[in-house]
Amino acid sequence: MFAVIRTGGKQYRVAAEDVIKVEKIKGDPGEIVQFGEVLVVDTTIGVPTVAGASVAAEVLEQGRGPKVIAFKKRRRKNSRRRRGHRQEFTLIRVTEILTDGAKPTIAARPKPEPKPKPVAAETTEGAEPAESKAPRTKAKAKAKPAAKKPAKAPPKKADKSKSGGKGKKK
């Protein structure tokens, strides 16, 4: 069974277990979303949509596409504009195609909890603490002594010419 859905101004032909990339929609990874704008289900064509039909899908990932550079140049005008753009998308897996107002049977999967970070072991009294290998920060980089700058030269004396220094030299 297949269906044609509309989302993000585009139409997609989908079947169960299809993985497709659509324009960004709200939803966290693992969440189930429903698409209500179903245009076609098998041989049933909706006018404009099929009544009571929907498509359930699981959000796999929220991401951004490749960078596209918009470069505009007006020749002989010394005018150039360079702008980058990354389109956001949502990767979804179609779980089922529902008809007659049915509800999705698959519940949302629980979000995986992040693993706890290991606690640093305490040092014993006799052992010396190891040096930390933390990256240099701006504060540490600025702590280096600066090289001495050379003294400024005295200002130059003005030329005394016949014109008093205000006009062109002849």
Written account of the structure:
This protein is an all-beta fold and 170 residues long. The protein has a domain at 2-98. It is built from 1 helix and 8 strands. It has one helix spanning 138-142, and strands at residues 2-7, 10-15, 19-23, 32-35, 38-41, 44-45, 54-74, 79-98. The strands form 2 sheets. The chain has a 4-stranded antiparallel beta sheet with strand order 2-1-5-6, with no helix packed on it. A 4-stranded antiparallel beta sheet has the order 3-8-7-4, with no helix packed on it.
Radius of gyration, CA atoms, in whole angstroms: 34 Å
In whole angstroms, how far apart are the ends? 97 Å
Biggest sheet, open or closed, and with what strands and sense? 4 strands, antiparallel
Order of helices and strands: EEEEEEEEH
The number of E-state strands comes to 8
Mean of all residue-level pLDDT scores: 82
Show unreliable segments. Answer: none
Secondary structure: elements and pairs:
Layout: E1 2-7, E2 10-15, E3 19-23, E4 32-35, E5 38-41, E6 44-45, E7 54-74, E8 79-98, H1 138-142
Antiparallel strand pairs: 1-2, 1-5, 3-8, 4-7, 5-6, 7-8
List keywords for this structure.
single chain; 170 residues; mainly beta; 4-stranded antiparallel sheet; 1 helix
Write a brief caption for the model.
The chain is mainly β. It is built from one helix and eight strands, in the order ββββββββα.
